[in-house]
Amino acid sequence: MAPRQKRGTRRPQAGTEDAGHHDVVTGGSSVAFATSVLRFGRMLLAQCTESAMSPSAERLLTACVFAAFAMAEPAAAAQRWEVDPHRTRIAFGIDSIGWPRTEGEFKQFSGRISIDFDKPQRSKAEFTVDTASLQAGSDALSSLIKSSAFLDAERHPRITFASTSVEKLNDRTARVEGMLTLLGVSKPVAIDVTVDRGTGKRLGFKAAWSIMRSQFGMSAGTPIVADKVDLLVTTEAAEKDGQ
């Protein structure tokens, strides 16, 4: 009888331990389940090292391992990034006949970005803008735009955007689709976002797109005031510590 080989110390396979410190989107229950499944698989493997593994045991072990990875995969998902308000600008511009182009920006807002560089489709973005924070060069013009004729800031104090899908177009550009809510009306929009990964734990974003304000029920001033509104968002975000 051949001498029994001593069992070596097995190192944990990549992906079998806790994925790390990043905040996860899916919660901890799936991670605990996956870890339990992997432990069961290791026990089964240890019992089979001294004898040939039967086909049924082999299939069971394979199923356990695949199930564990399938359940654990979301845990390594997206990293959370915090928008830097001091490096963020949310601006708009609109043309009119016989008048200079009107431009302005919103001074109060909040945002949350969750990014998965390996699987960009899991990334998410949300922004909320305080309508009353609009500034358009003069108090009189700002008050007019915030009035019931246009933004109706008293009745609709917030403008929101929430992404529904993210598609990587190339190394620096992603297409973000989502729902924009203005004047209480939600419409789908598609935005091409330029991403500057820079260095360290900071990211830069730039998004420029246009909407037709009449689609949100804002028709005051047409056709003298254009229907198309150009929007520009530039921001930097820092990776949140202690995720």
Q: What is shown here, in short?
A:
The protein is α+β, with helices and mostly antiparallel strands.
Alpha carbon gyration radius:
26 Å
Give the CATH H-level superfamily of the largest domain.
Answer: Lipid/polyisoprenoid-binding, YceI-like
Provide the helix percentage.
10-25%
The span between the termini is: 54 Å
Q: List SSEs in N-to-C order.
A: HHEEEEEEHEEEEE
- Given the structure, what is the number of helices? 3
Question: What would you note in describing this structure?
Answer:
The chain is α+β, with helices and mostly antiparallel strands and 243 residues long. It folds into 2 domains: 29-76; 79-239, Lipocalin, CATH 2.40.128.110. The protein has helices spanning 29-48, 55-72, 139-146, and strands at residues 79-83, 89-96, 99-106, 109-115, 124-130, 134-135, 158-168, 173-182, 185-196, 202-212, 228-239. An 8-stranded antiparallel β-barrel has the order 1-4-5-7-8-9-10-11. Helix 1 runs antiparallel to helix 2. The chain is elongated and about 50 Å long. The termini are far apart.
